[in-house]
DNA sequence: CTCAGATGTGCATACGTATGCGATATACTA
DNA sequence: TAGTATATCGCATACGTATGCACATCTGAG
């Protein structure tokens, strides 16, 4: 039914191993033989089976990208650069979207025979990294890291961005500043909150408890948090959001509440998604080089796969404030 | 190094095939043996190798989803339902994002040993369907279809939605109606354009050539097209866009041009993406049940895989107009 | 003319699992 | 008690490719 290397071998008058070697351009074979094999392969429409290859070689050249919540606008933007970087280095991307982070997911990743995994939605208490480590399956943290299991990582350093944001806010007279952060079990949420608090502290400002909301990195979190903040007797004049998607929710809540942005309240995001700079949105946000970060994560993982004994590396990417229309002076 | 079924067999004091059967709950084995094997497997942390399983059984239970351009807001929304539907039927989703549609892509799909493929970004002249058919690899068209190769498909019927849009426009006094459609080599672009033209014809309206733009289903197409339309000596009072993403671009162009929506021009999209109903956007658009369509595509493909001889089926999903804020009366 | 070295190819086997079929033991029937 | 059916499991092998090693052929030097 399906054409195998044996069929090609028969047609070319060589052995099956010779077909294998010829198509992978083994230097020990003569040019004439290679050519003959190639011709035969093409004539039969032969396509090597990755499954056979994987079983025999013990490597699949496939790398998993573990995500939750692809509907979140953030994640799709890491797929294309990851795909390209991996392809350019001879690996294939295999996307796994799982809503949970548990033993089943870990088993699934292991059973697929991946050469490595990029973890993009780890929580600090994820179980997946533990299982992968036990199994000896290489992985890299992207964006978020986990506690307990050390590994290579590519992350954002929110410090500079938050310092610039704090300064920009203070310069415009803001003192009542609120934060709608991500889930408390993610490293990104914690890092950003800490960076913001430290930056504000330099200006003698702190964020009181009733100005703090936390939740998943989605629009609902931004919407609900903003709705509640705007109802306070003394609402904040600025809201810093855990990421752009949260900020979009905040913009929506402000619109529904009839509150002008940035006239009545300023809103700042994080990630600088393409959507943020749409003319109908023009969100002020904190930017970093997402593509470079993705490529770095891919490279770190491949390095780990090919040279397992190197020390772990943490690649940190700087951030900066991008001022568009949702930042104004305090009323 | 890695635990195999043989290791489990040795520990449980049975043969390797017995391990295979026990873990897949073969009714021929005694409950006692199964239990003993399960215990041993757990103790060793055994995870069956998909690679070995695939080679032996000839099936991977993996289904590919072929996409281009994941950065387009539309595509991420089909991944989650596809994933869930396939998992519920014992298959795994493997995402393939390719920028092109060519022989290389087809070979890649074939070599991966997939059991089937969902084609979500076919053009009418795609080569992939040809190769898959030649290879006997089952596939289903999602959303877009291709000419030449017949197969199962799940698509939108734009007729009702376009009729409702035409009526809504005419009722509001619109006569100068423009269209920014998708690429001329996609079935969706053609279907929608045709449906719109027919619907308008019922009201005695036609779309003149200078009111028509075409391009990829992205924001740039909507932006550029709208920019040009608004510059015309007699600009249209309404613009119907090939999909929501194009419409977002149109909204952006109107904003930059200082043109009020819907005061000066009405804009209508297609797809009803979550973003379309954001309070800061509130795009009037044509909706359909995207999730159901995805699930149907998955089911059709699985049916094709498991019962290859059934006649091809075309699942068509109705559409309807959702009126929000970007539709107004003609000025 | 012989032999070391280089070059090119085949043989045997391994990878991990699934499955047809046969073997053994047990239960049941007449 | 013999024979048949049933339950339970192992043996042998297949799946498609890669790779260590042996073998054969050829080249060129001494």
Describe this structure in words.
Two copies of one chain form a homodimer. The first copy, chain A, contains twelve helices and twelve strands. Chain A is of the alpha/beta class and 331 residues long. In chain A, α8 crosses α9. Chain A starts with a helix and ends in a 9-residue tail after the last strand. The relative contact order of chain A is 0.12. The mean pLDDT of chain A is 94. Chains A and B meet through α4, α5, β2, α6 and α11 of A and α4, α5, β2, α6 and α11 of B. Chain A binds a DNA duplex (30 and 30 nucleotides) through α2 and α4.
Keywords:
elongated, alpha/beta, Rossmann fold, DNA-binding, 12 strands, six-stranded parallel β-sheet
Strand tally of chain A? 12
Structural class of chain A: alpha/beta
**Content of β-strand of chain A:** 15-25%
Number of separate helices of chain A? 12
Instruction: Specify the helix fraction band of chain A.
Output: 40-55%
What is the top-level CATH class of the largest domain in chain A?
Alpha Beta
Strand order within the widest beta sheet of chain A: 2-1-3-4-5-11
Q: Care to give the gist of this entry?
A:
With 331 residues, chain A is α/β, with parallel strands linked by helices.
Topology:
The structure is a homodimer of 331-residue chains.
Chain A: H1 5-12, H2 16-23, H3 31-44, H4 50-57, E1 62-67, H5 76-88, E2 92-97, H6 103-111, E3 116-119, H7 128-135, E4 139-142, E5 152-157, H8 159-171, E6 177-181, H9 187-201, E7 212-214, H10 219-231, E8 238-241, H11 244-257, E9 266-270, E10 284-287, H12 290-306, E11 314-318, E12 320-322
Parallel strand pairs in A: 1-2, 1-3, 3-4, 4-5, 5-11, 6-7, 6-8, 8-9, 9-10
Antiparallel strand pairs in A: 10-12
Chain A binds a DNA duplex (30 and 30 nucleotides) through residues 2, 4-6, 14-21, 24, 28-30, 33, 48-49, 51-58.
């Amino acid at each position: 039914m399906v054409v195998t290397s044996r069929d090609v071998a028969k047609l070319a008058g060589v052995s099956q191993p010779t077909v294998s070697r010829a198509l992978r351009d083994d230097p020990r074979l003569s040019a004439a033989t290679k050519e003959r094999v190639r011709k035969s392969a093409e004539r039969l429409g032969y396509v090597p089976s990755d499954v056979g290859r994987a079983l025999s070689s013990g490597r699949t050249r496939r790398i998993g990208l573990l995500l939750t919540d692809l509907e979140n606008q953030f994640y799709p933007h890491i797929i294309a650069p990851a795909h390209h970087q991996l392809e350019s280095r001879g690996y294939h991307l295999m996307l796994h979207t799982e809503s949970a982070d548990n033993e089943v997911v870990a088993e699934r990743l292991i059973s697929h025979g991946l050469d490595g995994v990029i973890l993009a939605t780890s929580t600090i208490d994820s179980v997946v990294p533990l299982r992968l480590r036990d199994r000896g399956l290489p992985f890299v943290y992207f964006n978020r890291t986990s506690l307990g299991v050390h590994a290579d990582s590519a992350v954002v350093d929110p410090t500079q961005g938050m310092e610039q944001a704090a300064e920009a806010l203070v310069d415009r007279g803001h003192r009542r500043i609120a934060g709608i952060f991500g889930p408390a079990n993610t490293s990104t949420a914690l890092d950003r909150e800490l960076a913001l608090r430290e930056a504000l502290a330099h200006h003698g400002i702190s964020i009181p408890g009733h100005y703090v909301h936390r939740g998943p990195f989605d629009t609902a979190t931004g919407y609900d948090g903003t709705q509640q903040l705007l109802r306070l007797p003394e609402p904040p004049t600025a809201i810093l959001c855990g990421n752009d998607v949260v900020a979009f929710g905040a913009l929506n809540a402000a619109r529904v509440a009839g509150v002008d942005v940035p006239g009545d309240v300023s809103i700042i995001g994080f990630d600088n998604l393409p959507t943020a700079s749409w003319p109908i949105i023009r969100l002020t946000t904190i930017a970093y080089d997402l593509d470079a970060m993705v490529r770095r994560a891919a490279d770190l993982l491949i390095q780990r796969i090919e040279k397992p004994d190197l020390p772990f590396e943490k690649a940190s990417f700087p951030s900066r404030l991008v001022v568009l229309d949702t930042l104004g002076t305090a009323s």
